[in-house]
Design goal:
By secondary structure, the chain is α/β, with parallel strands linked by helices. The chain has 16 helices and 17 strands. The chain folds into four domains: about 100 residues, Rossmann fold; about 60 residues, Helicase, Ruva Protein, domain 3; about 110 residues, Tetrapyrrole methylase, N-terminal domain (Cobalt-precorrin-4 Transmethylase, domain 1, 3-Layer(aba) Sandwich); about 140 residues, 2-Layer Sandwich (Methyltransferase, Cobalt-precorrin-4 Transmethylase, Domain 2), CATH 3.30.950.10. About 35% of the residues lie in helices and about 15% in strands. The strands form four sheets. It has a five-stranded parallel sheet, with helices on both faces. Strands 10-9-11-8-12 form a five-stranded parallel sheet, with helices on both faces. α13 links the parallel β13 and β14.
């Protein structure tokens, strides 16, 4: 963040507005709407002031700005439309210890004004750090279209019951879940459609159920686990259900390959536990992860087990699911876009293509070249299958994989693509042929997660390196 977002209490406090422009009028209206007092300093006024000129908390001083005018104010807005005059007002404000905003001049301002979605008690502020105000306004329009018109009524309804809820449900996850049940269930629906009587009855029923002897106040048994696929890295590829679970999670147990940008989509106060496995080592073994998930759920917490790609494709999601079921922990699985699909799309590479490949096979390559420990893979059969071969976790054993496939009968000139950090801003697509796989991996510094795609379709990838190798392979193929 380039600016700290805050909501300033202007109730019965003074804000100085300098300038008689339409922009100055807009700032004056915002201050009045927030309960503040406006002290306007300008010789001439735009017609935009007509609707607020008689407001009880509006004072107009029809003269030029003076250095002492900033004294005692909470904030100052400079909106004369003249750079020199705005600069004088900002400097005077700073000398008086008052934060100042110069309209449309972020470099001159101590703070900037966001685009605002106003739903009464619910306010949404959007900022582009002053770089693109039009973009911020476009985002505001989209949010306004999503938010119900009676959102203010829902917030005020909840405020009336805060004390009752505090007496019935202990602070923590249980109370948070109750409020989510209110806002996302029949009670909230009733408020939004204007039926406060039904909403009140529904709220009392919820509170009575929570206060009964049969319902524990701390709701300690209410924990659950969601196995969530984070996709290959681009946060925009999260499913809506995955995003919803991240927003509600009390704890997020995540792998190393989960991109930071995805974790930023989670609830800000959610606890985050990194159990990621590093190449050649383990931060936490699978048994310990399984036990951690059970322990967290038994504390009454909503747990998201966040995995790169899809939990059930080389993600050990099945092992975790089985362990949670055996311990009677409520669990759900939310699929994610697996690395093969995401990276292939990022490389503009179809995994199947009429006339080139009618099947695709996903394999893991981290055991290749380790004697008999090949994960049960028959590399000769894979070489003869004619399917596109997608190798997960194959970077370290790339030479052994190429050798096994060539020995199994696959043409050494078969095109391939190595996709590193697929779908992320720093993705790379390295093209070559099967007999150059070892050279590609050795020559290029590949630090991020990488996927190897082998087969005729790899020649269709949009590549940004080693294109000469691919061109040579295509010429050799005829």
């Amino acid at each position: 963040m380039e600016h700290l977002p805050v909501f300033l209490n202007l109730g019965d406090r003074d804000a100085v507005v300098v300038g008689g422009t339409a922009a100055a009028a807009a700032k004056a209206r915002l201050v009045l709407a927030a309960g503040g007092r406006v002290r306007l300093i300008a010789v001439d006024l735009d017609a935009a002031f007509d609707e607020i000129h008689g407001h009880i908390r509006f004072i107009h001083l029809a003269r030029p700005f003076r250095a002492g005018d900033a004294q005692g104010a909470t904030v100052l807005f400079a909106a004369t439309g003249q750079d020199g005059e705005d600069r004088i007002a900002v400097q005077a404000a700073r000398a008086a210890g008052v934060p100042a905003n110069a309209v449309d001049r972020p470099a001159l301002s101590d703070f900037i004004m966001p685009a605002i979605v106003d739903r009464g008690a619910v306010t949404v502020a959007i900022s582009s750090a002053g770089t693109a105000p039009v973009l911020a306004r476009a985002i505001r329009r989209r949010i306004e279209a999503l938010l119900p018109a009676r959102l203010d009524a829902l917030a005020r309804f909840a405020a009336r019951f805060r004390g009752n809820v505090g007496r019935v449900v202990a602070d923590g996850p249980a109370r948070r879940r109750l409020w989510e049940q209110v806002f996302e269930g029949p009670v909230g629906d009733a408020v939004l459609r204007g039926d406060e009587r039904e909403a009140h009855a529904g709220m009392m029923a919820l509170l009575n159920a929570r206060s009964s002897a049969s319902f524990p106040a701390n709701d300690a048994g209410g924990g659950s686990v969601a196995l969530v696929g984070a996709g290959p890295g681009d946060p925009d590829l999260l499913t809506l259900k995955a995003l919803h679970r991240l927003e509600r999670a009390d704890v997020i147990v995540h792998d190393r390959l989960v991109a930071p940008a995805i974790l930023e989509r989670a609830r800000r106060d959610a606890r985050r536990i990194d159990v990621g496995k590093l190449p050649g080592s383990q931060a936490m073994n699978q048994t310990a992860i399984n036990e951690l998930l059970v322990a967290l759920a038994r504390q009454g917490l909503r747990v998201v087990r966040l995995k790169g790609g899809d939990p059930f494709i080389f993600g050990r999601g099945g092992e975790e699911l089985d362990h949670l079921r055996r311990h009677a922990i409520p669990v759900e699985a939310i699929p994610g876009i697996t690395a093969a699909a995401g990276c292939a799309a990022a490389a503009r590479l179809p995994l199947t293509q009429r006339g080139l490949a009618s099947a695709v096979t996903f394999v893991t390559g981290h055991h290749a070249g380790l004697g008999s420990e090949t994960g049960g893979l028959d590399w000769s059969a894979l070489a003869q299958s004619g399917a596109t071969l997608v190798v997960y976790m194959g970077r370290a054993n790339a030479p052994a994989i190429a050798t096994a496939l060539i020995d199994g009968g696959l043409d050494p000139a078969t095109p391939l693509a190595v996709v590193e950090n697929g779908t992320r801003p720093d993705q790379r697509i390295l093209a070559g042929r099967l007999d150059t796989l070892a050279e590609i991996v050795a020559a290029e510094t590949i630090d991020g997660p990488a996927l190897i795609v082998i087969g005729a379709v790899a020649a269709l990838a949009d590549t940004d390196a080693l294109n000469d190798i691919l061109a040579a392979a295509q010429r050799a193929a005829g």
